[in-house]
Amino acid sequence: MVRAGLSPERLALAGAELADEAGFDQVTLSALARRFDVKPASLYAHVKNSRELKTRITLFALEELADRVADAVAGRAGKDALTAFANAYRDYARAHPGRYEAARYRLDPRTAAASAGVRHAQMTRAILRGYDLAEPDQTHAVRMLGSVFHGYASLEAAGAFDHTDVAAQQSWAWTLDCLDTALGSRSTP
Length: 189
What we know:
Organism: Sphaerisporangium rhizosphaerae
Order of helices and strands: HHHHHHHHH
Structural class: mainly alpha
Protein name: TetR/AcrR family transcriptional regulator
InterPro entries: Homeodomain-like_sf, HTH_TetR, MT1864/Rv1816-like_C, Tet_transcr_reg_TetR-rel_C_sf
Keywords: DNA-binding, Transcription, Transcription regulation
Number of helices: 9
Largest sheet: none
Pfam families: TetR_C_33, TetR_N
């Protein structure tokens, strides 16, 4: 029997909330069952297994992050777009650490191709059009931006920047200035 009020979407949202509270690795069917005061077996009417639950949370997080980034970059170009994109990414990682971690969960190729991860790549490439980068530089730049944003957000979340008098925000602004300069220097003549 399907319990009233439970659905795959509601489980994904509850899983995302649990991930923010306890960490994505702590999201299990048992933990969610406790949240809904049901037996774990009753959740199998809505999701096949833990892998499907984590995939649904990942898809939810990717969509949510893509929407925030799209709103942030709308109508912007060049460094302004780069900064808005980066800030939306970092702000999401800080506000939703578990969901951010979920957005890094490895999806099978078919699921990944149908996910909002594609929108992330498209938005990154749209920003890079303002820098007039030809291939393969554009692909290198997509990978560089993703690496820098993820690395910074991960280090900041781990408290790695708490040990100096220089504010993390100052370093973030400096990093974005450097990225803008590096991307501008690679522009096609």
